[in-house]
Amino acid sequence: MPRRFRVPARRRRLLAAVSLAAVVTCVLSACTAGRAGSAARDNTLVVDTSFVYKTLDPGMVYEQTGYLAVHVLYESLLTFEGGDVTEPKPGLAESYEASPDATRFTFTLRENATFSDGTPVTAEDAEFSLNRLVNLKGSTSAYFADLDIRAVDDRTVRVTSRAPNPNVPVLMAMPAASIVNADVVAEHGGRSDESAASQDRAQSYLDQNTAGSGPYVLERNQPGEQLVLTANENYWGDKPGYARVVIRNMEAQNQKLTLTRSSSPEIALDIAGTLLEGLPPSLTVSQQPDTSYFSFVNTDPQVSRVGSRPEFVRAVRAALDYRGLAELFGSRSGPARGLIAPAYPGTLPKQDTLRQDLPLARKLLRDAGLTDPAIEFIYPAITYRGVDLGTIATKVQGDAAKAGITIELRPLPMNSFLEQYRGGKAQMGMTPQALTYPRADSMVRVMSPGGVNAERMNWTEDKASADVLSATDDFLAATTDEQRNAAVVRWQHAMYRDAPYVLLGNNSGTVVSTPEVSGAEYTPAGWIVDLAAVRPAS
Amino acid sequence: MTTVETSAPPARRPRVPPIVRYLARRLAIAVGLLFGSTLIGFLLVQAVPGDPVAANLSDEALGDPAAVAAFEQRWGLDEPLPVQYLTYLRNLVQGDLGTSQHTGRPVVEDLLDHIPATLEIALPAILLSVLLGIGIGMFAALRHGRAADQAVRIGSLLGLSTPPFWLSLLALYLFFFVLGLSPGGGRLSPEFSPPPSVTGLYPVDALLAGDPMLAWDAVQHAALPVLVLTLVTTATLVRFVRSALLEVLRKDYITAAHAKGLPPRTVLFRHLLRAGLVQIMTMAGLTFASMLAGTVLIESVFAWPGLGNYAYTSASALDRPAILGVTLFVAATYILINLVVDLLYGLADPRIRLS
C-alpha cells in the first residue's frame, strides 16, 4: 500500500492555482474574442465556402471555387447576368454575329476595355487566351478543341467551328474562356501554341497574380485558407459593390452557424439541401435546381447478369418513390423529371414528373423471369450540397426492396468510387451530375452511347435503341439553341425508356446572404454568384 | 656511452566526445529511416485505390487521350515507377519535394505555409497539456483511491472517449454560436491581413511587426482549437502521469525517503516526480508529434489551414508529391522528437548517461 503524502496547504494552493490559471487563460482568451468590428468589415464582403479549386489560371481552372474567383478577376467575350442563362450577354465583346450554319462566329470587342495594368484588351489577347486554353489540354480544353480562333483586327475575333456548334457563344461565356493579358502571361512563361501542354509555365504566376480585366484583382491566394480580392482601380465598367472580397474555406455546417450569427456583409455558398432547415428568416436564400442525381447500371453481363437486363433497369425506375427522394434532397423543384435539371433550357415540363409504380416494377421483373434479383450498389460516402448520399442510397435500397429487388449498398471513399465507376466495373451506383456549361450539350455528349459516362456502363451504340441514337443525332445536328432545346426533350424521353440510367432527383445550388447585402443571386452558369454584383443593401 | 634512441610518442587521435558520436549515429539512423519512409510512402501511395489522372481531370478531359497524356507528362506519371521514385529521390536530395498537383505550388512552400499554422495551436496546447497533465495526474496519484482521484479518473476517461471533432463542434457551438464570445474559424478575422512572415506564427509575427491588435485577433482565433487540443491531450497525459507516479509511489526508496524524515516537498519533486519523468517525457513527446501530424479533424472544424488539413486535401486528390512531402515531414518530426526526448532522459535520470 503506497504511503499517502500530505502536501503542504501552500503547495496545494499553488498547484491548484497553476492548473486553474491554465484553464482560465484558455477559456478567457476564447471568451473575449471576435470583437474586431470596424469600417473595414463593412467594406469587405466575406464569402464562406468549402474550397474546391486547384488553380486560378483561367486556362486550367475547372472547379467551382476557381470559377467563382476567376469570373470576377477576368472577363470573357460574353457572359450571363444574374441567374438567367437563357441568352449570353455582352462581356468584353459588345456584340457578335453567327453564321446561319453555326460554324462561324464573329465577336467585336469593346473599345474601352482595359486590363488591370491599364493596357487595352485587344483581339490578339483573345486569340492568345483561347488558343492557350485549347493547347493546354486541361479539363475544359475538350469543349474548345474543334474551334479555330483568330484575331481579324484589333477589335475583331473570329471563331470557326469544324462542325455546326450553336453553343460557341455559351462557351465564350465560360470562365475558362477568360481573356488574359497576352504580353504579361507570355512574359511569365505562357504559351498558346501546340507546345503549351508541356511547355507552358504561367500557372504558378497566375495562381498568385492577376492578368485580367475583371472588376477585382487578386491580392492573396492562400490555398486551403482564403482568397483575397481587391477592387480593380482601372476597371473600365461599373465599380463593384465592395472594396475587398475575402473568400474563405469553411465547412458547410460552420457556414450555417456563421451566417446565423453574422451582422456584416457575408454570403455562404454551401448551405443547401436539409441544411437550409432552421435558418433565420432574416437571411436571404437564392437557389436554382441545377444538379441531377442519377443511378447507373452496368450493361455488361460479365459485370452484372441482372443489371444487363433492360427490364431490371425499368423495374428499378418504376419502384422508386420520387416524391420521397425529392424530400431528402430538400428540393423545391419537386420530384425528378428528366436528366436536364430544371435550371437549364431544355428541361422537361412538370407533367413529365416521374411517379412510383410498384405493381409495374413487380410485373416487369416477373415477365423477365428475374426472381429475387440482387445487385451491388456503389456510391461516394460524402455529403454533397447538404445531402448525405448514404441517405439517398438507403432510400433507393428501401424502395427497390418493396419491388423484390435486393440492393447491397457499398459506400466508398471518393477516389475508390471514381476508380470503380470510371473503370467500368461497377454493377450499379449513384453519382451527382451537373452541366459543365449551361447547355444540355455537355450532358448529351457524355451520357449518350459513345460518351464517357455511357462507356463506363459499357453501353455502346450496338446496345442502344434506334430511338436513343436518332434522338442524339438530331440533337447534335441542330444548329440553333431553340432547335436543340426542342431536340433535348425527345432525347430525355428516349433515354428514360432505354438508357441504363435511373434518375433520382434534383438538388439546388444555393447562395445564402445576410441582410447587409443585396444581389447575391445564385447562377447555374458555373460561377455560383457574380461577386461584383453583390452590393450593400440600401 | 650508449645512446638511447627515443621516438616521439604516437599521435593520439583526438577523442570524439560521446555525445557527438551518439548524435552522429542517430543522424545516420535518421537518414536511413527517412529514406525508408519515402520508399514505404511511395509504395503505399501507388497501392492506394484510385488514379491521380481520374482524380484531377474532368470527365470530358478523361475522354480525350491528348489531355490524359498531357497530364501524365506534366506530372511524370508516364515514366516507369522505379524511374519516378529515383527522380523523386534525386530532387529530394536537392531539397526539392516536387510540385503539388493540387495547389500547383512547390510542396516545400505548401509545407512552410501549413506547418506554422499547426505549430501555432500545437505548441501552446502541448505546454498547457503537460502542465495540467502533470499537475492533475500527480494530484490524483497522491489521492489514490479517494473521491478526488475517482473524479479525475472519470474526467480523464470522458476526455479520452470524446471524439475530438465532436468536442470541437461543441466548443464552436457553445463559445461562438450560443455565447457569441469566440470568432467562428480561420486564423484571422476577414478585415485583417497576415503579418509579414518571420516565424509563420501569426501572433508572434504580428508582435514583431508592432501590431498588437492583429496579434490579439490571431490569439483569439487560436484559442478554441488550443482549448480542444489541450483538453484531449490532457486527458491522455493525466491518466499516464497518474499511473506512472502510482508505480513509483510503491517503490521502497520512496518509503525510505519518508522514513528518513525528508520533507514531503523534497520527496515529491526530487524523488517521485523525477523518477516518473522519463515515462512522462516519452508520452509528451509522442503526443506532441501526433499533434503535429494528425489534428485534421480539429483543423477541419475550425477551418484551420494546418498540416492536417493539407494532408487530408492532398490525400483526397491523390496528390502524390504532397502526400510524400507530408509523410517525410511527419517521419522527420517523430525522429527529431524521439531524439530530443532521448537526450532529455539524461537530464531527468542520472542513471541514463552516455559513456
From TrEMBL, chain A:
Belongs to the bacterial solute-binding protein 5 family. CDD domains: PBP2_NikA_DppA_OppA_like_7. Keywords: Signal, Transport. Residues 1-29 form the signal peptide. GO terms for biological process: peptide transport. Its main location: other. Residues 87-447 form the Solute-binding protein family domain. It comes from Prauserella flavalba. Pfam families: SBP_bac_5 (PF00496). It is found in: Cell envelope. The keyword Transport applies. SUPFAM superfamilies: Periplasmic binding protein-like II (SSF53850). This is ABC transporter substrate-binding protein. InterPro entries: Peptide/Ni-bd, SBP_5, SBP_5_dom. GO terms for cellular component: ATP-binding cassette (ABC) transporter complex; cell envelope; periplasmic space. The keyword Cell membrane does not apply. GO terms for molecular function: peptide transmembrane transporter activity.
